[in-house]
Fold this sequence. Notes:
By secondary structure, the chain is an alpha+beta fold. The protein is 34% helix and 30% strand. The protein has a six-stranded antiparallel beta sheet with strand order 1-2-6-7-8-5, covered by helices on one side. A two-stranded antiparallel ribbon has the order 3-4. Strand 6 (147-157) and strand 7 form a beta hairpin.
Amino acid sequence: MSHGLESxxxxxxxxxxxxxxxxxxxxxxxxxxxxxxxxxxxKGLKKLFEEMISFNRVLGLKIHDLGxxxxxxxxxxxxxxxxxxxYNRIHGGVISAGLDAMGGLAVxxxxxxxxxxxxxxxxxxxxxxxxxxxxxxxxxxxxxGSYFDLHAQVLRLGSRVASTRMEFFGPDGTLLSTGSxxxxxx
Length: 186
């Protein structure tokens, strides 16, 4: 049994054997725009992302919009995030880590949307194997501001790998950095 199927078996407290359940599961056929996440799923994903991933707490990442097609979050500027003290510029590592986290969040939302036939808690358990396998960040402008908005979307969600695009904006809406990432999902 592969590691992915073991996770699926652990996620299913009751029900048919993992292979039967995987074969019988129907994918969500609704367009992403029509999918609305349940409050339990949204609360669970916010708790996972904002509280349980401790580095996201250090960054101060707070989810503002959690949809199946796009996710949005904000980082409030604070002294611990300064990379260049003379300009109060945000550190490039904060930008990179924030965009990486957002790509992962977008993948989590896309996986959640794909499996709407499952209970919210069962979908949340699917994220145990998620991890970054490739990340590219382009720094376009200096990150100076009181807060920064981060957006991400999934370009492709395959059975093993997801591809994402992420953006990092200043308070005035100026695009400061972009990113693309690949994430293992199985």
